[in-house]
Design goal:
There is one protein chain. The protein is 32% helix and 20% strand. It starts with a strand and ends with a strand. The strands form two sheets. Strands 3-2-4-5-1-8-9 form a seven-stranded mixed β-sheet, sandwiched between helices. It has a single domain, classed as Class I glutamine amidotransferase (GATase) domain (Rossmann fold), CATH 3.40.50. The longest helix has 12 residues, at 44-55. The protein has 207 residues and is α/β, with parallel strands linked by helices.
Amino acid sequence: MKKKFLASSFSDVEDLFLKFNGERGTGRKVSFIPTASLTEKVTFYVDAGRKVLEKQGFVIDELEISSATKEDIESKLKSNDYIYVTGGNTFFLLQELRKTGADKLITEQINSGKVYIGESAGSIVLSHNIEYAKDMDDFTAAPHLDSFSSLGMVDFYPLPHYTNAPFKESVERIISHYQGTLDLCPISNKQAIIVIGKEFEVWTAQN
């Protein structure tokens, strides 16, 4: 069964992930991919997400795909128990996933039943096409990206940071522009999209 946990801000939905996962990590290993954050000036969410996972008992195995060897990428994605992709620049993330072949490996692992955890850019990149994120992320950060076609692992379009600064206005513009053509799924920093098989629903944190 394919399972995905897609958030805007992972540290704000810690309890939702515990509910989704059904148990603590207890030594299980996570391929932790911070690559999307490399082009960003603000990156506090990377450490925040890492700390939540460690608090829940997971072992972090960092995998920075733009600098890792193809052998290392393949080994970690296949052998570790979970895949976690942080927020940052969605276009740079897709560029590096494609360049290294990690996009295909991640797709294979999701299809085999491995749990995928996405945060912001890590959520958007599962859609069929990330062009809609131009209002949110700077696409010029990925000069070698020749297409916006993405992993296509969900049939909707995750839209993180709904109603949250500093993305409130850019998210509203995306909704205004694409609401008639894309199946957008806006989520605030206190929400997560839970995907089980082909079904999905939005959960909201109580705190």
